[in-house]
Write a structure and sequence with these properties.
With about 140 residues, the protein is mainly alpha-helical. It has 8 helices and no strands. The two termini are about 15 Å apart. The relative contact order is 0.14.
């Protein structure tokens, strides 16, 4: 994931710009979800809302750039959300359900995610199971 280091939450570049490849228009007969992914890839990543990041991450799009942003959001919001006894699971679920290989490729990001996850409680048992599965798959220290 190191290729994507650098973009921040105010990044003015789109995934298409960062990747250096433009997708054609979405086929007319695709689902609304697929059309949405095509559209989101063209927007500056700094303008994406957490649920939109979750949509792209859930489709394994732009992980090199989006996962660091998602972990930053989770890290920054986890303490407040945990204190409130509620956590919006969409972005969290998208992040923790990426393959173990994704996290093995960026141990520092995996360590940051582990730290963000450590403060969360009151999660649904389903998300908690996904978190436990992810944490078990990470190398020690990751």
């Amino acid at each position: 994931m190191n290729e994507g280091e650098g973009p921040s939450l105010d990044c003015p570049s789109s995934l298409e710009q960062l990747e250096g490849r433009r997708w054609p228009e979405a086929p007319a007969d695709t689902t609304p979800m697929v059309q949405n992914v095509y559209e989101l890839r063209r927007r500056p990543i700094g303008t994406l809302e957490p649920h939109e990041l979750a949509r792209l991450i859930g489709q394994d799009e732009g992980l090199a750039w989006l996962l660091p942003l998602a972990v930053e959001i989770l890290r920054d919001t986890a303490p407040q959300q945990a204190a409130g006894g509620w956590f919006d699971d969409d972005l969290l679920y998208a992040v923790v359900t990426r393959s173990p290989e994704v996290w093995a490729a960026d141990p520092e990001l995996a360590r940051e995610l582990r730290q963000a996850l450590a403060v969360l409680d009151g999660l649904s048992r389903y998300v908690k199971q996904d978190i436990d599965r992810l944490l078990a798959s990470l190398p020690e220290g990751g």
